[in-house]
Amino acid sequence: MNETLAQISDLAFEAALAGYVVALVCYAVELASRRGVDATPTEAASAALRAGRGGTSTITRTGEGRDGTGAEAIGLIPAAPVASWGVRFGRAAVVVTVVAVVANVLSIITRGMSVGRLPLGNMYEFTSVICAAATICWLIVLAKTGARTMGVFVMLPVVILACVAGTVLYVPAAPVVPALNSYWKWIHVTTVALSSSVLMVSGAASVLYLLRGRYERRLPAGAVVTASTGAGPAGSGSPQSAGAPGAAGSLSARLPSLPTLDRIAYRTAIVAFPVYTFAVMAGALWAEVAWGRYWGWDPKETCAFVTWVIYASYLHARSTAGWRGRPAAWISVVGFASILFNLFVINMVVSGLHSYAGLN
Fold first, then answer.
1. Which long-range contacts link 280-285 to residues 24+ away (Cβ below 8 Å)?
2. Cβ–Cβ < 8 Å for 128, 103
3. Inter-axis angle of helices 326-341 and 258-291, to 10 degrees?
4. What rounded mean pLDDT belongs to the chain?
5. Each residue of 143-187: pLDDT tens digit?
6. Best label site of 14, 26, 165, 349, fewest CB within 10 Å?
7. Whole-prediction pTM value?
């Protein structure tokens, strides 16, 4: 074992943990500073259409035209104001998140190099990979949707997992027990870690969908909706809010729109579910090699199967007209809870054939 690489891995993980905490704080500061959620052009138009059915709407377009020359350039309107301090914190949060996940990936790579194997031999390494994969998934979602106000809710479980990994679950770098020296081990655990990470982002989006939906259902029927176009994927445009009393100060008013949250939850689940299915199948094949049977209803196996059924139900419900929206989101939230239960309770509390994977 290479002690130098092992020390570099530990230092890199500590740096990643510090970065995740700083990013979480920056996301929270931006969220607290906003009066509403930034709307992309598509969301602004959608808000106008919804408001037109029972209220009024205003859409303000700013920025450059198609030819690259904005109206402010020819003196028709004043130049766009400088970004607020809250938006600056949000932009800083994205930068810190990138730096933190790079440090996390460096920690994983050097950990594997130090022991000459894939760094997935215990709960510390497994949780570290989940943190990195979930953060990378979040950055991809952010680049696609610009839903930066969702960042605090994604980074919070990542920070919790990283803190638990660095304290309770931490073990020094060392070779694994012979039972884990199987190529099925690396296939199974890698796919479980990656799919679980993406499903965590899907679950967070579903939780926010329910919160946002509850907020919108409480709005008066004739509430005024004001929306303005965003300034790109970074979500640095003007706020979108409802004109109901106290709406702008509500936390739910600052969340991304319902269509955006639903799209994030659904698309991430579509990507992760086939990978999770393959992970369950690979685990069964590994069980046959290691224990002489494909399935034995071990607590870990049972919980994995229950999680698979829940997400299969979610995808089916999401494609069924009568179950779209809030009912499907609730199923996704239950699946999210099942993943967390499998990760913590099954691995750390319940005794079974998988108990050696972390603390014992």
1. 280/304, 280/305, 280/308, 282/184, 282/187, 282/188, 282/191, 283/188, 283/192, 285/184, 285/188
2. no
3. 40
4. 77
5. 998 888 899 999 999 999 999 888 888 888 887 776 666 777 788
6. 349
7. 0.76
Task: Assess contact for 57 and 226: CB atoms under 8 A.
Answer: yes
Whole-number Å distance between alpha carbons of 315 and 158: 25
The mean pLDDT value for 246-263 works out to 76
Which SS3 state, helix, strand or coil, does residue 324 take?
coil
Is the confidence at residue 98, as pLDDT, over 60? yes
Residues 302-359: pLDDT tens digits?
888 999 999 999 998 888 877 878 899 999 999 989 988 887 777 776 665 555 444 5
Distance (Å, whole) CA 348 – CA 52: 53
Instruction: Find all residues with CB under 8 Å of 186, minimum gap 6, and list them.
Output: 118, 120
Residue indicated by tokens 């999210």: 336
299: nearest Cα among 332, 335, 344: 344
Residue in 211, 216, 103, 212 with CA at minimum distance from that of residue 166: 103
- 153: nearest Cα among 196, 203, 192: 203
Distance spanning both ends of the chain, measured CA to CA: 21
Contacts of 355 (CB under 8 A, 6+ apart): 347
